[in-house]
Every structure is written in C-alpha cells, then in structure tokens.
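Backbone-to-sequence.
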C-alpha cells in the first residue's frame, strides 16, 4: 500500500501526489513565496506600509497584521490621495529580479514528466518568468483581465496582473480593483470558479486572513477534498477553522528556528522537486546509501523510510540488496511488513509476495531466529503467501535446530486444510535429518482440530456459534 510521502516533518497528501502525476495540479502562489531570500519582497502588509510611509500616512497601517484592517481599502484611500498607488507599487517591486528556490522548485514541479505547467499567482513580480527563463522552460503567461478558461489552461496566470501593467492589463491593488475583478466585472471569479471545479489546487504562501481570501471566498465552489493550503503548525489553532470555512484542507509544516520561520517549507519543496525529478540511477543510489548506513542510522526519519519502502521502485531495490536479518525488525516496527500477515487482494498480492520472499530469506541465514521474533509479534498469524514461503525455506534447507522446529509448529498451527499435503512431503524430508521433528509434525497432522464459526441470527433470532472437529482428510463433525 502506498503511503503519504514525508520529508522534514511534512506529510504530502496523496491527493496532491496523484494530481501531480495525472497533470491535474494547480499551484496557487501568494506573497509568502516571493518574500523568501534572496527575493525578499514584501507581502501586502509590507507594500501597504511602504506606500503609506512614502505618502506620509504611516499611521494608517498597523505594525502587526490585524484581520480587521483591510489593506485593499488602505491602498484605495492612498490611491485616492494622489492617484499613483499602482505606479508606486511597481517602482517598489521592479528592482527585484532574483527568484528564490520556491520559484525554481515550483517551475520544476509544474513541468515534471512533460506536464502542462499550471501556476496561478496574485503576486505582481515577474520572478516566475525569470526562473523559467533560467531553467529554459517555455512558459505562456496570462495577465489580468485577459485570462484563459479556468477549466482548460496552462502556463502562468497573473490573476491580479503584473508590475507596470500596459493599457490592456490590470493591477488589482485597491478595494475598487478587487471589486471589479471579483464582483462587478467578475473576470477573476469566473476564472477561479472553473479552475477550482476542474483541478486540484494547493495554496502556497498564503494566510487564511490574506485580503485575496476574503474575495476568493466568493469564487470557491463547495467541493471538498480538492483544495489544500500549506500552513505552519503554530498557526493551527488560529487558522484551521478559517481555512476549513473556505473548504480548504491545511497541510501542516513545522516552524523553523531562526529568522525564517518558514524555512522548513522551502526545503520541503526542494525535496519534493528532487524526488519527482530523480532518475532511476538516483533512486537506486539513494537505496544503496540507505542500506550502507544500516538500520541504526537515524538520518532518514521513520516516516520518510516508511514512504521509501512502500514505493514500488525503491522497495524493489531495497529487497534486492538489504540483508533481512539486519533490517526486518526495523521494517516490521514501521509497519512495512504488515502486508505479509494479512490476506492478499488484487492490489497487494505483488507487494506481499516481494516482502514475504525477502523476510523468509532470513531463515537460511539465522535459522529462523528473526522470523520467529516477528511472527511472535503477530501471534503466529501468516498470510497464505508467507505460509508457503516459510514452508519452501524449510523444505529446501531444513537443519535440526530449535528455532526451525518452532517454525514447524507455527507452520502446522497456521495451516489450512489444503496445506496438509505439502506438510506430508515435508515429513519425508524431516525423517532423514530430524526424526524427532518428523514425529511431532506427523502427530500434528493426525490430530483433530477444533474450529469455531460464528453465525448471525435472522428473523430476530440471536447470533450463535458452531464448533467443528476437523479430522485428517478434511472430514468434519459438527458439535
């Protein structure tokens, strides 16, 4: 079973993983992305503070974010004074031309495996264009208000326009601009409504209190499970309910130490990029390095190891090289081996066969010691595949040893009626090397077993239990 990928304490929802793989993911990018070094651009609060200070009205903007303060309205008031707020914002942002790793990683993620890039941003800066140019990625760019169809688009969408907009473009900055974009003219609302109905969307670099979210709420169709937002863990109590009111599922990430509290998220995107763009050689080398470090090494946290070993390619490399006597206890502890103790289905049969063959290889190395240990944790329960692989190891390489004799007893206890013929073959093998074990096994096969079956009562009758003695040869007597 595939598990959610984790890196740096952040778990990526499988819905985002699947959407990226199927070319149905939209990255919706806010000011937090361009605020990271070396770009260091201000968010909407910083922009409002800069422009207000330039105009001599620094008292209009609070030093700390306040949800009751609407910065689009402040920008509107400032624009009413001189009519040049848009030009001042462009002048403030124009000198910044250096993208950061967010821009680079998001371009790489959006175009992985030949995907059509789909990035929507409310940022005015042109840093995505610069990151794409450096990566030699062709990126069609759409500027407000001339937006493509939201349910059939690709490229970069400047939902609120760019810096230095032309006569045919808009910069959505003031409350009047927002009203036109989302209400009276509604071109932003129309684009977003169709986009959110068609694609899985992840918000990066936003707070649920951001100005755009207040307007975005008017465009969000109710469709749970297709919208996500990265949110720092220490904002959980304050912001979770606000995101959920927008029908957006928060994806938590830890606060980093130091001045950049969002550094863990930035590193996560780099790790995500490296993961999906890695070659087969890279993935093989990663497993070799992991195995060389040994199971006692903790540089790969258990959640990340669990994902690696649940991935088809990584796990295939792992079982081909790793010594089960060294690794199976740790693999069992993180749940990777649960599949070999459960009945198989169409989805799990191949995975079960692979892990079952791997763990039973240990029998020939340590004479069943490791196998007995993990079987004890599962109370001797075995899938049919595991039962057969243990049987095969004993049949092909049995030696008189206490651990192997105990495995014989567990094998007979976990057998089904159809397994008796195979165990009979094993008796012939045991008789030559361990007559005492052969005698015990023969006794087990000739002893009747008591089986219990529960039944649900019908027509108001109570549930009831039947017992059956199962004799050798599959004959039964109901009690």
């Amino acid at each position: 079973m595939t598990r959610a990928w984790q890196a740096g304490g952040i778990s990526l929802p499988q819905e985002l993983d699947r959407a990226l793989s199927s070319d149905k993911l939209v990255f919706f990018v806010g000011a937090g992305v361009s605020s990271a070094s070396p770009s260091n651009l201000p968010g909407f609060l910083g922009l409002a503070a800069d422009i207000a200070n330039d105009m001599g009205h620094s008292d209009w903007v609070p030093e700390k974010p306040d949800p009751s303060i609407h910065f689009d309205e402040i920008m509107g008031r400032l624009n009413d004074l001189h009519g040049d707020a848009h030009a001042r914002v462009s002048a403030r942002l124009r000198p910044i031309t250096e993208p950061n790793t967010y821009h680079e990683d998001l371009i790489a993620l959006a175009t992985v495996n030949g995907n059509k890039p789909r990035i929507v941003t409310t940022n005015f800066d042109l840093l995505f264009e610069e990151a794409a140019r450096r990566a030699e990625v062709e990126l069609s760019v759409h500027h407000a208000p001339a937006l493509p169809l939201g349910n059939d688009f690709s490229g970069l969408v400047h939902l609120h326009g760019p810096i230095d907009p032309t006569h045919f473009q808009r910069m959505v900055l003031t409350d009047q601009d927002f009203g036109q974009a989302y209400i009276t003219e509604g071109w932003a609302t129309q684009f977003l409504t169709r986009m959110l109905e068609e694609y899985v969307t992840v918000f990066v670099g936003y707070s649920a209190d951001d100005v755009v979210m207040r307007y975005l709420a008017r465009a969000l169709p109710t469709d749970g499970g297709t919208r996500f937002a990265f949110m720092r863990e220490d904002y959980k109590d304050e912001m979770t309910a606000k995101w959920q009111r927008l029908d957006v599922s928060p994806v938590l990430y830890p606060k980093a130490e130091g001045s950049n509290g969002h550094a863990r998220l930035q590193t996560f995107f780099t790790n995500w990029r490296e993961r999906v763009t890695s070659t087969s050689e890279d993935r093989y080398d990663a497993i070799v390095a992991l195995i060389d470090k040994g199971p006692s090494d903790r540089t790969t946290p258990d959640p990340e190891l669990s994902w690696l070993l649940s991935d088809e390619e990584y796990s295939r490399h792992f079982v081909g090289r790793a010594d089960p006597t060294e690794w199976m206890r740790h693999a069992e502890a993180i749940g990777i081996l649960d599949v070999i103790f459960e009945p198989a289905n169409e989805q799990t049969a191949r995975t079960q066969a692979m892990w079952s063959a791997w763990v039973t290889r240990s029998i020939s190395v340590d004479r069943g010691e490791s196998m007995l240990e993990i079987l004890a944790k599962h109370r001797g329960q075995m899938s049919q595949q595991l039962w057969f692989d243990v049987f095969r190891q004993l049949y092909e390489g049995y030696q008189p040893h206490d651990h192997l004799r105990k495995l014989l007893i567990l094998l007979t206890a976990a057998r089904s009626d159809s397994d008796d013929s195979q165990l009979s073959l094993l008796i012939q093998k045991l008789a030559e090397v361990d007559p005492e074990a052969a005698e015990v096994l023969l006794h087990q096969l000739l002893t009747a077993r008591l089986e219990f079956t529960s039944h649900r009562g019908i027509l108001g009758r109570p549930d009831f239990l039947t017992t059956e003695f199962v004799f050798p040869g599959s004959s039964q007597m109901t009690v």
